[in-house]
Amino acid sequence: MEHAGRSRAKDPELYASAFLCAFAAAASVGAYRLGLGSVHNPGPGFMPFAAATLLALMALGQLVRVAMAPDEGSGGATAFATSRWGVVTIVLGTLFGAGFMLERAGFSIATFLMLVVLFGVVARKRWWVTLLWAALVVAAARLLSRALGMPLPEGPLGI
Amino acid sequence: MTKTLSRIAAVALIALLVTAGAAAPRAAAQEVFPTKPITVWVGFPPGGATDILMRALAEGVEKNLGQKVVVINKPGAAGAVATAELAKAKPDGYTIICNTDTPVTRSPHLRDVEYDPFRDLTFINRVGQFKIVFAIRADSPHRTWRDVVEWAKKNPGQLTFGHPGVATTPNLVMTRIAAKEGFTVRSVPFAGDGPSVSALLGGHIVILGGSSVATSSYVQAKRMRILLVNDKDGLDYAPEAVSFEKAGYDVENTTAVITFGPKGMPRPVVDRLAKAFNEAAKTETFVSVARKSEVTVGEPLMGQALADWLKKVGANYEELIKEAGLYKSEKKQ
Amino acid sequence: MDALHSIVLGLQVALQPTNLFFCFVGVFVGTLIGVLPGIGPVGAMSLLLPTTFHLSPVGAIIMLAGIYYGAQYGGSTTSILVNIPGEASSIVTALDGYQMARQGRAGPALGMAALGSFVGGTVGIVGLMLLAAPLAEAALSFGPPEYFALMCVSLVVLTFLSQGSMYKSLMMGLLGLLLSGVGLDMFTSAPRFTFGVNELTDGIGLIPLVMGLFGIAEILLNLEQPMTRRIYVTRLGELLPTAGDWLAAKWPIVRGTVIGFFLGILPGGGAVLSSFVAYAVEKRLSKYPERFGTGVIEGVAAPESANNAAAQASFIPLLSLGIPPNVVMAVLFGGLLIHGITPGPLLIQQHPNLFWGVVVSMFVGNVMLLALNLPLIGMWVRLLRVPYDVLFPLILLFCVVGVYSVNNSRVDVYLMVAFGFVGYLMQKLGYAPAPLALAYVLGPILETALRQSLSLSGGSFAIFFTRPIAAAAMAVMAALLVVQITSPWRQHR
User: Fold this and answer.
1) All structural domains of chain C with their residue ranges
2) Which residues 70-99 of chain B have a CB within 8 Å of chain A?
3) Which residue has the higher pLDDT, C46 or A41?
4) CA–CA separation, C480 vs C468, rounded Å?
């Protein structure tokens, strides 16, 4: 195969290493600012600095190694080929939303809505099955938590 | 046919949930506090000294208030994390905290905290105070504190001192004493009293500073001796213990357990809660737990009087913290 | 009082109907709690602490203890079924256990976990009975320098765990170390990497990290397949380990138990350490180390025996010296205090019926747990047959509730979500999550021990080499490092 531009197969690996390197470098700087102390009297930044710097160097090494390696079929891109980013976003977003609503709207409402999205949108169940399941599960969870004496936030409706 | 039935069932269920929710009794603001259960946070993990004190109180408070008391642990930074959150809670008296005084009198001097301890909080009552001790292994050649001081002066760098954490009372007190007496001490922080007790028993440190309850069983088992205690009456189970006062050290402060809430709590609510806690402190459960935890209950201190006392304590700690070089502005940031 | 007499005393106490009842309640609640992700034994014990006010001290402690070691049985259940470790000591069980579940061998995995736990637990109790006093004293000789050296050895052992690229595993270990630094610095009270977020003052939290990296990430991966595709192969025929499984697991159980028992005595981190050291040892000794991580029974048997032996051993510092070695034991300590019993060196002498009653009831409890957990295997396996499109929202609900209940904090949920995303990316790119999680647990112990040691020695590093135990551990670390570095070279000969 001719080199028709750089192969995309390695891209995810490259991005990951680059990101990790940058992240670790930033952490390293942050740790430095915390105060390294001395080797004999380590300050709060000592350990994080050591770990972050080492990590940054290793990530750099990885970056270089991947960039230099011949393009092979296997690589990050093929791993990501099956990713369904829409699903990932929705699931993570829903969980985030549930956390957000947990105290504002109470356990029951927050988790009910979360389950509705998961059952209905991600699992694509029919709307009445979704609502039924969600309600049942939330009710069961509420009962179970009351039975175990676990305090879960109550919503404005007292449920 | 089944499809329609399912649909109807779903709608009915939803309707049921909503109606049940709407029909739930709401707390009427006009009625006498409290009309629903109150939540008390504890800024420490369960099983800790403050936690069991609060749980011992909970029963008595419940009886007195006529409403359930729910204890929730919100550990983090000796209660500073919970305090920051509490400062944002509704000041209706249904969310309060039972904690040590650390977030109020110490944390603000160690770093920038999200709350102003005397503007964002309402103080309710003081539950009790811990006793702190300096302990040594029973088989140590040093018999009294004076022996230790003389030895430390002659052998700089040999005195190792373990304490339950940076800016805890034992830590700050030792720093001041060392400065006053002129000896060097290697202070080693441990994560609480438990690990420092192990360290003392194992001979890894020479002196331990901590709460008296952590060491009492070892004193009784003759594995440790108490050198100093901050109680002018000494310790009944450790007759050789000398009070800090008699030894010439001015140790006013010790960790107190207090209850407080967010700012703006109505006066009647604060008074009601203070009364409930004070009454609960008389119950048999609490008295025995307090005794076992070596907590001195002392005079009731509530509301504004408590706030004034805490201000004084806080100023004292500020001094000690600055002496120890731990004050926030001195640290590299 | 000789041993036989003590055991008889213990039996008299433990077999009283009320105490049997409390034991059962304890282990039952414990199993439940262990199975529910996030809500660990600490939460359960603290919730039940008030009820123990009204019980006799013996009954209360029997119940609370039951919750603790019961949770160790239950914690591996979610590790195996849905790749969500219930607690730190079950992380390693997920490595092979979950793969076994995917291959339709959830039954044998759960069964081996239960049985390995039983063996580990029982032997642990025997050890507790016979060796409590001398071992407790021995554990005292572990001070900061010894812990540091031990942590160094553990970090090297961590590299033995790596499946796939060791380089990448090392990177993840470093990342774990870095993440463990978030929070207040113990020595100066300075906030590190908290970015002003109040909830980060105490650090990120193991539960959100682990549930995100392992549980959420796994679900995101599974959701790539069409909903109709089976995530788990289920063969209802095999519900218990086969003879072949037993043969393979025989020695791992023994080794795991021994490792777990001795490491479990050390206050702080004993159970976690024991689980992954046992795993690493099995992998190193195995004839087919490359199969670890794909679903081998030894990868379940060894850590499970280890963590239960460690759980029993962790009672030793508490009962014979009065030193609670971890947060869970601290709750037990509190429970004893509430009943007017101050645990300490005199506990065994002053309250022999308490000590022996609790110890014997632990035997009873372990038997009850076996009787509880084995039949449940059928139920769990059936649960896996639920279509994934109904199962995964339930798992996610579990996760949200579980992670929230630890600290009643929303931020924990957000962190879990963030780590879920990170874990997903990591899996795609071949970075293993286990070294990250384990380094996260060990990091603080390592750093604390280092700085405490240097504080004690006034800055001199000699302290690590002049003290016998520490020096020995450092030597072991050096030896292991040499083995690890030269092994690819030696294999080529």
Assistant:
1) 3-491
2) 70, 72
3) A41
4) 18
